[in-house]
Amino acid sequence: MKHTHVAHHNMRSIPQRINSCFLLTVYSWIALSTCHVVDRFSVGQNESFTVRCTIQKFRTEDYPGSPYVVTLAAERRPTWEENFQLMAKYSPFAPLEEYKKVTNLTYRRNWNFQFLNGDSFDNRDKIRIVIVVNDGNYKDAGLYRCYYVDPLNRKIYSDNFFLRAYAQGRIVNMGSIGPGDSFIVQCDRNKFQRPGLPKSPLMEDLMVERKIDGSDAYTTMARFRPFLDKIPNRRVTV
Ligand SMILES: *[C@@H]1O[C@H](CO)[C@@H](O)[C@H](O)[C@H]1NC(C)=O
Ligand SMILES: *[C@@H]1O[C@H](CO)[C@@H](O)[C@H](O)[C@H]1NC(C)=O
Which atom of ligand 2 is nearest to the CA of 83? Predict the structure, then answer.
């Protein structure tokens, strides 16, 4: 993204902060709250997590040239969804009150929204959205990101942050189950032995199978081929 000379002058104080953001990745718990959109790496049943959008969540080269942004928003794409969904959108200068602070709260979820410091024409370094998800669960796993809209109406996205479902190391999150219990089956690269991992960073086809007591063959539970041409075939469930 290109900036004008005037705009560049305004940006001066920010790169320092981003550098310290990279240094902080050594202390990953501090980096999580400062640099990433979500403050945890994984979420399990009944665990809370916080989604934060500020200008620091964007790459240095993607900072707005203007001293203010028109809109700041938080979005997510849960693992089971095809598209990103809006979580909250903050447009402090919108003419109508109802468009200034938009929340998209799913039925019966316990989320807490804060829209802060957007109300001036130098809001760029101060504006923030904070969403506390008090009732997190494994279905909240997925990609989280922020975007802002600048005065020229350009929409700029932050990097995606992948919030994992908490089942690290194990394919199934429980050792035994009783009647009516629910459990999580999670497949990702961490479930494979190192020699079995693909050399390329690309996985085209990921499949979960199971063999129930008393049956003599594995059956497919789910198959994910994100690059197939036919969209309905990309996510196959049984
Ligand atoms: C989650 O929280 C609800 C309500 O607080 C409680 O009834 C339930 O037992 C909790 N589940 C787990 C797995 O902790
Ligand atoms: C709001 O969230 C729901 C799911 O929770 C989603 O289906 C819908 O598309 C979202 N709205 C927008 C504008 O993204």
Answer: 9
Contact 129, 74 (CB under 8 A): yes
Closest residue by CA, ligand 2 atom 6 = 85
Ligand 1, atom 9: nearest CA belongs to which residue?
46
212 burial level (CB within 10 Å; 0-12, 13-18, 19+)? exposed
Ligand 2 atom at minimal distance to the Cα of residue 104? 1
**CB atoms inside a 10 Å sphere around CB 5:** 7
* Whole-number Å distance between alpha carbons of 126 and 130: 12
87-121 pLDDT, tens digit each: 999 999 999 999 999 999 887 899 999 999 999 99
- Select from 111, 144, 118, 147 the least CA-distant residue to 37: 144
Q: Write the CA distances from 171 to 78, 187, 190, 194, 220, integer angstroms.
A: 19, 6, 9, 16, 14
Query: What predicted TM-score, i.e. pTM, was given to this entire model?
Result: 0.70
